[in-house]
Write a structure and sequence with these properties.
The chain is of the alpha+beta class and 227 residues long. The chain has helices at 2-33, 38-41, 53-65, 157-161, and strands at 66-73, 78-89, 92-97, 109-113, 116-119, 122-127, 132-137, 146-147, 167-172, 180-190, 194-198, 209-212, 217-220. The protein folds into three domains: 2-34; 54-58 and 150-220, Beta Barrel (Thrombin, subunit H), CATH 2.40.10.10; 67-147, Trypsin-like serine proteases (Thrombin, subunit H, Beta Barrel).
């Protein structure tokens, strides 16, 4: 009789163990097969985990500071969509973009972030020669501004930052799509402080800040050479 009880107890424990394993396996399958939401996939934080941590941080800075600049010139019917980079100095907030991307006056220029529009407070600088514009805006909660004064190389650090074949990254709104993040390499230089980068860009990418792998800003996308 005692032997029978031992046998029954062994069978019961095996059944309980099997049931536990089955429940855990089913839970694991359900957990692993649960698809992420579209918003999780499209998140600005969804960056490849296989990159070095410092590169991931640079790409994160690039994506969190990229905005869309929309400008209208009503008299001639000119409409432009460009990319801007959101930055801050002394508790004031600005957008760096290209001058050719803002044909309209300040009142006709808006900053688009995730479908929401933010007004231009003032054109701080419209530089035709170097083709850049600085626009003052209100604080944009959905983006993280670049601390611009600590993000630009200084002294001899420029030589290392601009070395041939250095990897660079930028985020923009080409063809009114995005934000799209693109990588490239420095391949040469031209007069007037121009840098040639082997990469991809289309209309609308102009104004994207160009970052080194270490997160330094060395310039902005100005034009595409298709020659």
């Amino acid at each position: 009789m005692r032997k029978l009880f031992k046998t029954l107890a062994l069978i019961l424990s095996c059944l309980l163990m099997g049931a536990s394993i089955g429940v855990l396996t089913l839970y694991k399958i359900q957990f692993n097969s649960k698809m992420p939401t579209l918003s999780q996939i499209q998140s600005l934080n969804n960056i490849s985990p296989f990159l070095p941590s410092y590169v991931r941080e640079t790409i994160h800075r690039s994506r969190l500071s990229a905005v869309k600049v929309v400008s209208l010139e009503p008299e001639y019917g000119m409409f432009s969509v460009a990319t801007g980079t959101y930055f801050t100095i002394k508790d004031r907030y600005f957008i760096l973009t290209v001058n050719h991307g803002v044909p309209g006056e300040c009142q006709y220029t808006k900053i688009n972030v995730d479908g929401k529009f933010f007004r231009c407070k003032e054109f701080i600088e419209l530089n035709i020669l170097s083709d850049y514009a600085i626009i003052e805006v209100e604080k944009i909660e959905a983006r993280k501004p670049i601390e611009i004064l600590s993000s630009i190389p200084t002294g001899h650090a420029w030589k290392e930052a601009l070395s041939i074949m250095n990897k660079v990254y930028f985020t923009g709104y080409p063809n009114n799509m995005g934000p799209l993040t693109v990588s490239g390499e420095i391949i040469g230089y031209a007069g007037g402080g121009l840098i040639y980068i082997r990469s991809y860009a289309w209309a609308g990418s102009s104004g994207s800040a160009v970052f080194t792998e270490r997160g330094e800003i060395i310039g902005y996308v100005l034009a595409v050479d298709v020659g």
